[in-house]
Amino acid sequence: MKRFLSITRDPIDEAGLVAGRTLSSGMGAAVYFSGVVRGQEGADAIVALDYSCFIPMAEHQFQRLFDRLAQRGSVESVRLVHRIGRVPVGESSLWIEVVSAHRAEAFAACQWVIDEMKQVVPIWKKPVTAVDASIPSNPNPAS
Amino acid sequence: MTIPVTFWSYFAELAGCSETVVTVSEPTTVDGLLASLYQAHPALAELRRSTLIAVGVEYQDGGYVLKPGDHVSLFPPVQGG
């Protein structure tokens, strides 16, 4: 199974990722999901989320998830990009694509990776209000 | 032996620092280290039931026996996506 992982402070180039898709002739499904920061966190209006990450462990845990995904045998490729640092409302914090032969497998695998990520990958988010936004986010991506 | 400990996310605010070093005798488990740590950082003790523990880049439970060179990380439930 082909895999691509990026944990980045840069905006996610969704168009570039879609344009860069490769799939073999036996593949009939490419499912991708983009997680976008909402303008509310609970009852509070926010302007962004600050994501922090324990990067070496996050990369390791993502690779373990991909290993488990590969064992399912039905996925040709997975590509995942997680943005960290300050992500404004309306922008994507997560992009994932799964390619497989059939849509049921692709949808299920995409959902599975996201569900598992939310259990084991050490990434955290902190709401940023309009008042908070006047304070710079932590420039250290590993904190 | 000395074990470096890193606090992630809001655990760093509760601890008042992002890193510390704990001196423990051998053999000591993660639970033994936490007992020392919670004395110095009681605010973290209140969250012990939801605390996630890693040694290096692997999750471990309280029974893990620490060895020289281990690096422990403590953090709250993860929230990616």
Q: Can you walk me through this structure?
A:
The complex is a heterodimer of chains A (143) and B (81). Chain A has 143 residues and is of the alpha+beta class. Chain A has a single domain, classed as Aldehyde Oxidoreductase, domain 3 (Alpha-Beta Complex), CATH 3.90.1170.40. Chain A contains three helices and nine strands. In chain A, the strands form three sheets. A four-stranded mixed β-sheet of chain A has the order 1-6-8-2. Chain A is elongated and about 50 Å long. Chain A starts with a strand and ends in a 15-residue tail after the last strand. Chain B has 81 residues and is an alpha+beta fold. The model of chain B has no long low-confidence stretch (mean pLDDT 97). Chain B has helices at 10-15, 30-40, 42-45; strands spanning 2-7, 19-23, 52-55, 58-59, 72-75. The longest helix of chain B is centred in the middle third of the chain and has 11 residues, at 30-40. Chain B has a five-stranded mixed β-sheet with strand order 2-1-5-3-4. Chain B has a single domain (2-75), classed as Roll (Ubiquitin-like (UB roll)), CATH 3.10.20. Chain B has three helices and five strands, in the order E-H-E-H-H-E-E-E. The interface between A and B is medium-sized, with 24 and 19 residues.
Question: Topology of this structure?
Answer:
The complex is a heterodimer of chains A (143) and B (81).
Chain A: E1 2-8, H1 14-19, E2 29-36, E3 40-41, E4 44-45, E5 48-53, H2 55-72, E6 75-83, E7 85-88, E8 92-100, H3 103-120, E9 123-128
Chain B: E1 2-7, H1 10-15, E2 19-23, H2 30-40, H3 42-45, E3 52-55, E4 58-59, E5 72-75
Parallel strand pairs in B: 1-5
Antiparallel strand pairs in B: 1-2, 3-4, 3-5
